[in-house]
Structure prediction request, 203 residues.
Amino acid sequence: MAHEPSANVLIEDRARYTHIAMLLHWTIALLIIANVALGLSAALLPSSILSDTGARVVIDMHKSIGITVLGLASLRVLWRLTHRPPPLPSVFLGWEKATAHAAHITLYVLIFALPLSGWMHDSAWSAAASHPMTLFGVVPWPRIGFLMHFEPGFQEQLHTQLGTLHTLCGYALYAVLALHILGALKHQWIDRHPVLGRMLPKC
Prediction:
């Protein structure tokens, strides 16, 4: 005869995110970290180490991962809208809950803003028409059409400005992400609030 789950087990399960939410969360996080490394490689490595061909491969991979993050983030939002997230521990103070919610909203905004600004920056590239974009070298991906048809001087200016916006969104995301991680570690190890388990599967 099967045993019904205890009340403690049910409460513990309700305090965790769903497995789909966990998978999307950690996949997006790992892809963002990989894209930071790729972006820094393309920007910081000298031309003697990173050839023009190598730079193109790195940049194209950076674009592909960015678009993938955009798609997964969209799925993450849809999943969250249809699956109520677990409540924060009751021991959290009011201002801690408000700060946590604000940080999550900011992260979502930046996770969308970063790939969108990068896509716009790439679409305004003067050579975009002659260099079709493909995801991971396999799947054709469109540029944002209207950004490709401005007067060349204005298009180059727009390309530069969108690149600056993309960079600023990146720095903002890194800062908020660092605060998010530090806050989670502080609650877990200093305050002894079991917050990490909410986004980890049961052992």
The first helix runs from residue 7 to 14. The longest strand covers residues 133-135. The beta strands are 133-135, 139-141. Residues 64 and 136 are 6 Å apart (CA to CA).
